[in-house]
Amino acid sequence: MKVQIVEVGPRDGLQNEKEHVSTAAKIQLIDKLVAAGLHRVEASSFVNPKWIPQLADAEEVLKGITWSSDVTYSALVPNVRGMERAKASGLTEIALFMSASETHNKKNINKTMEETFPVLREVAREALALGMRVRGYVSTVFGCPYEGAVPIDNSRRVTHELLEMGVFEVSLGDTIGVATPKQVREVMEKIVKDTATERLAGHFHDTRGTGLANVAAALDVGIRTFDSSIGGLGGCPYAPGAAGNISTEDLVYMLNGMDWDTGVNLERLLEAGAFIQEELGRELPSKVLKAHLAA
Ligand code: HMG
Ligand code: MG
């Protein structure tokens, strides 16, 4: 029984760090995550560096990593300008993103939802023509920091639009970590009515401590791909109060105990967690990392 993990720490994790993290540290982190057996790594973002200064070095990071042939490296791309940068960096996968709520979409990418669709469609068209794989994110599926509850039909519509563009997998985001297992079941059961579970992933932030419980609920619905972040780093700069993603160490520990095969070596993963904790100079949220370092 296999579960795929998409490591988003170098992107979602670091994008919210106030202190500048060196390019060399980002490169080392990615190489360590790959050495731990992660096969899908979101390495950075090709967004406007004025909006996300921490990831302004996306090109340098991708130049510096030791490319492994059995790993898919990816990065966020919001528009055609980002696509040009991704293409020049040699990526074989990109990720599109937008929100299921109007206000978060506007704050995050400066466009209404209707204005966003054609931009993403154009990016997807270019990426697919180059033979790239295109992933998609729907943010604020389980709640919006500005609007509160988000109608499930909004998420269904965005999921449908992304799949129509040729996206191979849509990651459903609990951007601000408000979801509970009951809601995850309700929302995902509705979404899997028109989308196969193999096309979906769960992206849970752990702001309120429900992240891993939400993974368990999504597993029950049939979801087999989850995004997580080393150390539990992370947050969205345009979602006030949003904390880190679920921690990859905690996710792997839990999945191991449930007999799911992730292909990840927990010992090596903990080395990567300890490395980035040391680099950032503060204790990270991962509980398994904490327990490991205390032992
Ligand atoms: P904008 O300012 O409206 O863009 O930003 P614009 O098209 O008007 O261009 C303004 C300037 O930015 C121009 O330069 C462009 O060339 C430049 P100027 O002429 O002023 O010198 N520019 C760029 N430069 C480099 N790369 C680019 C790029 N695009 C424009 N790609 C934009 C619109 C979408 C670019 C901006 O709003 C942006 O970058 N937003 C990104 C915000 C972000 O990264 N948020 C976090 C990621 S999403 C997330 O975390 C959620 C997720 O984890 C899932 C979940 O948790 O739910 C995925
Ligand atoms: Mg996120």
Automatic annotation (TrEMBL):
<keyword id="KW-0456">Lyase</keyword>
<dbReference type="Pfam" id="PF00682">
    <property type="entry name" value="HMGL-like"/>
</dbReference>
<feature type="domain" description="Pyruvate carboxyltransferase">
    <location>
        <begin position="3"/>
        <end position="270"/>
    </location>
</feature>
<protein>
    <submittedName>
        <fullName>Hydroxymethylglutaryl-CoA lyase</fullName>
    </submittedName>
</protein>
<keyword id="KW-0479">Metal-binding</keyword>
<comment type="similarity">
    <text>Belongs to the HMG-CoA lyase family.</text>
</comment>
<dbReference type="InterPro" id="IPR013785">
    <property type="entry name" value="Aldolase_TIM"/>
</dbReference>
<dbReference type="InterPro" id="IPR000891">
    <property type="entry name" value="PYR_CT"/>
</dbReference>
<dbReference type="GO" id="GO:0016829">
    <property type="term" value="F:lyase activity"/>
</dbReference>
<dbReference type="InterPro" id="IPR043594">
    <property type="entry name" value="HMGL"/>
</dbReference>
